[in-house]
Every structure is written in C-alpha cells, then in structure tokens.
C-alpha cells in the first residue's frame, strides 16, 4: 500500500480497496494450499506407518516382516558364507491374561513385549508381531550360538521382569521360543519359518517358558 501511494499518490481509494481484497484472498489461498500440503504429508506418514508397523507394539507387522524376510532369504542364499537366524516366540497362556484382566490389559502386555524386543535387539535385527500374541525376530549374519544366546536372553528378560498393567497390578509373563538357523538347520533359507515354527510348537508342548532348537538338518 505504501509503495502504491508513493509511486501513484493520486491513486483512487477504490483501487486500494481492490488491491487489499486481492491481497487478502491471495494470502488466504496460500494458507489453504500450505495447510492442505501439510495435512497430506501427515496423512501419508500415517498411512506409511500403518502399512508397515503394528499399531500396538510399534514394530513391523506381518506383511512388512515377510517383505523383509524374502529379501534376506534371497540375499543369503546367494552368498555361501552368509548366516541367518530366525526366532519365533509366543506369549504363554495369553488367553488367560485376556480372560482375567481384560483385552485392554492384554494389549498392554503386547506393547511392553514389543518395547522389550526393541530394547534388546540391535539395529541390524528385524522384529515383528506376526500374529495375535506371536512375534518373530530375524537376525542376519548371526551364528547359531549367538542366535541361541539372544533367544535365551529374550526369554530370561521377560520372565525376570513382571509387566506393570494400567490398573497398577504386575503380572508375571513368560514366552516360549523356537529358533532356526541357516545353514545349521537347512541348506535353504526359505525353510527357516517351517523349522522355527516346529521348534516353537515343541517349546510350548514341552513345558513352555523355554527355548527349543536343534543342530540337525531338517
């Protein structure tokens, strides 16, 4: 406005009014576009998170875990010197927790388990919730002994630290784990899920709160 008045001191008042209206409308349009763009970016991030991560635990969901697994299986099979370990773990008697404390507190148990996995695992490991109370951990460049040690560390950490519920109660929680290793257990990395699942079933049917594995070829 000052520039217009300086350049054209005899500018009619009506012209200034039109200038103000156009400026205000232009500013409002700019703000709308900026807000729309910001909202779109937030929604995109939310959709991307929901597509890859489990909404309760904050770790990968089953779809993303299978995607990462396929890449690692292919990469490992093409490198004779590579090693790969897969852990399946399942919360023991999770249905009883839901029945006794309610599904909301059951969700708290799942959240805490996800948090403990994130704390225990390194950035090179991939963890995911692949079922209701079932989790998986994939460890590239991991020896059989190291994978077995990590599985036992997970089991012990969960067993030794009761979980605090939102009600203020603390409950003991244990997990059963099955581990499979390439090339110790199989010449084909693609079969690791089958072996880990069998080992998990063995752990649950032979007493729970334990790690089951084998050094034999499956």
Write the SSE topology.
Blueprint: H1 2-7, H2 13-52, H3 62-77, E1 84-91, H4 94-101, H5 103-120, E2 126-129, E3 134-140, H6 144-160, E4 163-164, E5 170-171, E6 175-182, H7 192-205, E7 211-212
Parallel strand pairs: 6-7
Antiparallel strand pairs: 1-3, 1-6, 2-3, 4-5
Helix pairs in contact: 4-5, 5-6
In words, what does this structure look like?
The protein has helices at 2-7, 13-52, 62-77, 94-101, 103-120, 144-160, 192-205, and strands at residues 84-91, 126-129, 134-140, 163-164, 170-171, 175-182, 211-212. β6, α7 (192-205) and β7 form a beta-alpha-beta unit. The chain starts with a helix and ends in a 6-residue tail after the last strand. The strands form two sheets. Strands 2-3-1-6-7 form a five-stranded mixed sheet, sandwiched between helices. Strands 4-5 form a two-stranded antiparallel sheet. The longest helix has 40 residues, at 13-52. Helices cover 55% and strands 15% of the residues. α4 crosses α5 and α5 (103-120) crosses α6. It is an alpha+beta fold and 218 residues long. The chain has seven helices and seven strands; from the N terminus they run αααβααββαβββαβ. It folds into two domains: 2-51; 62-212, Alpha-Beta Plaits.
């Amino acid at each position: 406005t000052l520039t217009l008045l300086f350049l054209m001191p005899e500018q009619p008042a009506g012209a200034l009014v039109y200038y103000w209206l156009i400026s205000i409308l232009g500013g409002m349009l700019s703000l709308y576009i900026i807000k729309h763009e910001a909202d779109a970016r937030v929604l995109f991030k939310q959709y991307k998170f929901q597509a890859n991560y489990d909404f309760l635990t904050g770790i990968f969901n089953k779809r993303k875990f299978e995607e990462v697994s396929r890449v690692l299986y292919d990469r490992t099979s093409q490198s004779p010197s590579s090693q790969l370990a897969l852990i399946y773990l399942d919360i023991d008697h999770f249905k009883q927790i839901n029945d006794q404390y309610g599904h909301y507190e059951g969700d708290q148990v799942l959240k805490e388990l996800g948090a403990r996995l994130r704390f225990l695992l390194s950035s090179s490991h991939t963890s995911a919730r692949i079922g209701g109370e079932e989790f998986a951990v994939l460890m590239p460049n991991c020896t059989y002994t190291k994978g077995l040690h990590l599985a036992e560390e997970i089991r012990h950490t969960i067993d030794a630290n009761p979980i605090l519920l939102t009600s203020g109660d603390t409950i003991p929680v244990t997990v059963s784990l099955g581990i499979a290793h390439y090339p110790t257990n199989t010449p084909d990395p693609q079969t690791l899920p089958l072996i880990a699942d069998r080992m998990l079933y063995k752990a649950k049917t032979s007493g729970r709160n334990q790690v089951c594995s084998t050094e034999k070829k499956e």
